[in-house]
Design brief:
It is a single chain. With 211 residues, this protein is of the alpha/beta class. It is built from 6 helices and 13 strands. Strands 1, 4, 5, 6, 7, 8, 9, 10 and 11 form a 9-stranded mixed β-sheet that branches. The protein has a two-stranded antiparallel sheet with strand order 2-3. Helix 1 packs antiparallel against helix 2 (28-46) and helix 2 crosses helix 3 (84-93). It is globular. It starts with 5 loop residues before the first strand and ends with a helix.
Length: 211
């Protein structure tokens, strides 16, 4: 099986907005709004190859053929809690998408992700699923979340993140070679505390003001 692709979003608006997210003086309110805006822009790119079908309609002038989305319906699955910051931005683009939630925390001793919550749309297995999390650091949470989706029969999964460390991309690709990764920017590395460098700190704390 071929490797899933890694798509880096080199759009000027995305680069500009990620730079604002990185600044430590950016307020909680601005951070929350901008993380949603970046998610909308990323969603626009990540849905570029959705299938269309022709549909006959009437304009005020005459009949014509237009297009509508066909095939798989979409589901957005944020990894709690930081992933919640990306959901509204994606729903702004695709209002009909269903939303599932997967909650994971990192065990203090083993650093392995532990699931504490999982609630998915009933028909999630036949949907195109976008798993969202602002940060792909060690890759542990992303791998665990996608493991869970595959247990539920999901075949068509994409992962969207704002910032990734090379280490996280490698771990995710190795565990799930069939998953395409859409990333705003690939940073330099992880530090000894598994934070992305230069990164933007803890995305959950900055979205929800819990620092």
């Amino acid at each position: 099986m071929g490797m899933g692709k890694v798509v880096v979003m080199d759009h000027p608006l995305i680069k500009h907005k990620i730079t604002i997210l990185r600044k430590k003086e950016t307020s909680c309110k601005d951070f929350r709004e901008i993380i949603g805006e970046v998610a909308s822009l990323m969603c626009y790119e990540a849905t570029r190859d959705l299938e269309l079908e022709p549909i006959d309609i009437e304009t005020p002038i005459c009949e014509c053929t237009g297009y509508q989305l066909s095939g798989k319906k979409l589901a957005v699955v944020p990894i709690l809690r930081a992933g919640l910051g990306m959901v509204e931005g994606i729903l702004a683009m695709i209002p009909a998408a269903r939303v599932g939630h997967i909650g994971l925390y990192r065990d203090e001793k083993t650093f392995e992700p532990v699931e504490y919550f999982c609630k998915l749309p009933k028909d999630v297995s036949v949907r195109q699923v976008f798993v969202v999390d602002p940060m792909l650091a060690t890759g542990g949470s992303a791998v665990a979340a996608i493991d869970k989706l595959k247990e539920h029969g999901c075949k068509n999964v994409r992962f969207l993140c704002t910032i990734a460390a090379p280490e996280g991309i490698e771990v995710l690709q190795k565990a799930h070679p069939d998953v395409d990764i859409y990333v705003g920017v690939i940073d330099e590395k992880l530090n000894e505390n598994a934070y992305i460098v230069p990164g933007l700190g803890d995305a959950g704390d900055r979205i929800f003001g819990t620092k």
